Amino acid sequence: MVPKSAQTTNPSWFTPKRLLGIFCVINLINYVDRGAIASNGVNGSLATCTDSGVCTSGTGIQGDFNLNNFQDGVLSSAFLVGLLIASPIFASLAKSHNPFRLIGVGLSVWTIAIAGCGSSFDFWSIAICRMLVGVGEASFISLAAPFIDDNAPAAQKTAWLATFYMCIPAGTALGYVYGGLVGSQFNWRVAFWGEAIFMLPFPILGFLIKPLQLKGFAPMESKQALTSNEANASENGADGMLVVDQAFIRGSR
Predict the structure, then answer these.
(1) Where do the coiled-coil regions begin and end (predicted)?
(2) Which regions of the chain does DSSP assign to beta strands (E)?
(3) What span, in angstroms and rounded, lies between the C-alpha atoms of 222 and 2?
(4) pTM value?
(5) CA 160, 163, 169: angle at the middle one, nearest 5?
(6) Cα atoms in the 13 Å half-sphere on the side-chain side of 95
(7) Terminus-to-terminus CA distance in the chain, angstroms?
(8) How far apart are CA 107 and CA 201, in angstroms?
(9) What residues does 55 pair with on adjacent strands?
C-alpha cells in the first residue's frame, strides 16, 4: 500500500483528455515510422536493367545501399530486437524511477535514433539505428497504457484505450502516404528527419513539465521515508518489549 505521503497531487498542466491526446499523437508518430520505412518512397528499389540494356537507377534505402532481400527484411524488423530487450527493462525501472520521466528518456533515444537513420551511411549504421528506435519506443509502449488506464474515467477506460490503439493502423497507413510523398519529392533521408522533428517536442515535455506518478508506485523519497519509519517503529517496538520483560522479571521477584 502506498503511504499518504506518497500520494502526490496532479501537476497543473494535467487533464485526463490532454494526457490521452499527447499519448495518441506520440503513438501515431511511432507508427508513421513503421509505415514510412516500408513505403516505396523510403524503402525504394534496386537498380534494374532490361535485356535490351536499358537500366534504371536504384531508389530509396535499397538503391543507395544496394541491399539484398535479406538485408532489406532485417531493416524492417530490426526495431523489434531493441523493443523486446528494452521493454522489460523499462517496466522494471518504473518501480524505482518515475515512469513519466522514463518515457521522456525513451522518446529522446527514439528521436536521436530516427535522426541517425536519416544520416546513416551503410547497412550496418541504419540497422543499429533501427534497433535503437525499438529501445526508445519500448519505454512508451510499456508505460503509456497504464497511465491511460489510471487516469481515464471509469466508464470510459475501454474507449480511451481503444482510441489509443487505433493510432496503430492509422499511423501505419499515414506512414505509407508520408513516406511515399516525402521520399519521392525530396529524399528518403528527409522522411526520417521529419519524423524526428515531429517527435522532438515530446521528450522535451517529458523532462521539463512536472511528471505524473503511476498509481501504486510511490516516489523513491516516499519509499525511503517509509522504510525509515518502519525501521524506527521496529526498534521502538523492540525497546518496548524489553522494558515490559524487565518489569515482569522484577515483579516476579
Answers:
(1) none
(2) 48-49, 55-56
(3) 9
(4) 0.80
(5) 155
(6) 4
(7) 45
(8) 10
(9) 49
Given a contact cutoff of 8 angstroms between Cβ atoms, the answer to whether 212 and 10 are in contact is yes
Q: Which residues contact 242 (CB under 8 A, 6 or more apart)?
A: none
Q: How far is Cα 247 from Cα 237, in angstroms, rounded to an integer? A: 15
Q: 62-95 pLDDT, tens per residue?
A: 999 999 999 999 998 999 999 999 999 998 998 8
From CA 238, how far away is CA 253, in angstroms rounded? 23
Grid cell for residue 122: 551503410
CB count within 10 Å of CB 243 equals: 9
Tell me the one-letter amino acid at 246. Answer: Q
- Take residue 240 and report the three cell numbers written for it: 518496548
DSSP state letter for 209: S
Distance between CA atoms of residues 161 and 154, nearest Å: 12
61 near 117, Cβ under 8 Å?
A: no
